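Quick one: structure for this chain?
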Amino acid sequence: MPTAANASVDVPPIFNAPALHERFKDLAGMRAFAQQIIDWWDRDRGRDFKMKTEYVQGAGPIVWTYATHAVEVMRVVLRQSELGRMAVVASEVRLMIELGMTSIWLYLQPVPAAKALLHETLRQHRATVRDAIAVGHDGFEELLKRLDAEQAENDGDSSPTGKSFEQRCRAIDGGLEMYVMWRLYSRMSHATGNLADHYLLEVPISAENPLGIALNPDGEEDTHESSLGLAICMLLVALKACDLIDAEGRRTTQIRTAAKKIGLGLDFKLIATE
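Got it. Here's what it folds into:
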């Protein structure tokens, strides 16, 4: 799992400014490093992906899709980093954590985890269809019947880890730390007071300004390095999980070298339970 460096309050302790200066010259260097990782993936886009046998019928296809999506999300993060607008992609960094941690969970438990995830996906789909019917949309009744039948057929595949990202993280060694990071980025991923505060500044209270606030349209991000570094870490996590199910292991050496460069541990383990 990602190793933590010393961090100040409210800065995600994954990849902070002191760590940045030890490993990269500047933010442009970090972005170039991430782009190099993306380029690896892009060079293989036209090649067949051969999965290990035990993953073909389980989590393999899902792990591959998550790695693919992590690469695409990283492109967006890099663009906003270039613009100095990392706060805009807080939800994308949060998604990178989800993609990375869920990929680990699927890799470690390929059959039961895949079944649990698909069961939860089906449950959410049914809930959406039910809501569509409830508000008067036509044409969903037959779909709901099919979904009900599928749900009944796969009802035994339900699990707490399938329903809860927190539980997935808690099942993985070092995962609780990543869940805390996910919660921190959730503050900026929804319409909450935390998001509003990002675009406001505290100023002296006066007769003209009794609230003591000023508008801040630039919304400067004081944890740019941490956010970008965390996104890169989660990209490598997702790609590592994908490489572990690759029958050819085409990127094993490159991922290991990149992880060493950024100071990232990639030893995936479940927490032992009695």
